[in-house]
TrEMBL record:
Gene source species: Xiamenia xianingshaonis
Family from the record: Belongs to the SMC family.
Protein name as catalogued: Chromosome partition protein Smc
Assembly description: Homodimer.
Subcellular localization: Cytoplasm
Chain's role: Required for chromosome condensation and partitioning.
Residues that span the membrane, as ranges: none
Binding site for ATP: P32, N33, G34, S35, G36, K37, S38, N39
Whole-protein residues included: 1 to 180 of 1185
Domain of life the protein comes from: Bacteria
Amino acid sequence: MYLKSLVLKGFKSFADRSVLPFEPGLNAVVGPNGSGKSNISDAVLWVLGERNAKHLRGQAMEDVIFAGSTARKAVGVAEVDLVLDNTDGTLPVDFSEVVLTRRLYRTGESEYLINGAVSRRLDVLDILHDSGLGTGTHSIISQGSLDSILQSRPEDRRALVEEAAGVLKHKQRKAKSERK
Ligand code: ATP
Ligand code: MG
């Protein structure tokens, strides 16, 4: 599985529909300060189900909607599509390509779609569950959290590595079965 592309429309500084293509392997996003690099990782977090506006560097969830600039007026809806290549079947669905979509209207209404079909946030989380992606995982490390990881206790750092390696879910399952 790999990220094929990200489509942003009305999300933060991306007022117009922007398609960002990615390649398998390592990709880098470069640009001057304030050009929207972190907004791209915010978009990835958001479409994967992030509910805490602060984790998206905002005060309220509405802050993800393009708020207007000197050249353009604000828009009423933010939308992000995350296009995943699933030819290796990492995600437990019968599609070689999975498009996850999240929308938020200024009225507060929001929706998730999986390959265009209206879905629940839970369905999105379910699909991602064993993939190492998703909220709460450390597949995305923000500028600020790097310091706290470097300064954390060895036990905590080990937990992070285990989670990133996909060991944590097996530990949780083991603990659960031992409790039964
Ligand atoms: P740096 O190199 O400093 O980390 P960056 O490329 O990561 O910069 P971002 O933080 O992604 O930059 O982008 C910041 C820009 O996004 C600011 O100009 C800010 O005004 C704009 N922005 C954030 N939210 C919105 C919004 N809702 N509507 C319009 N513009 C927004
Ligand atoms: Mg940044």
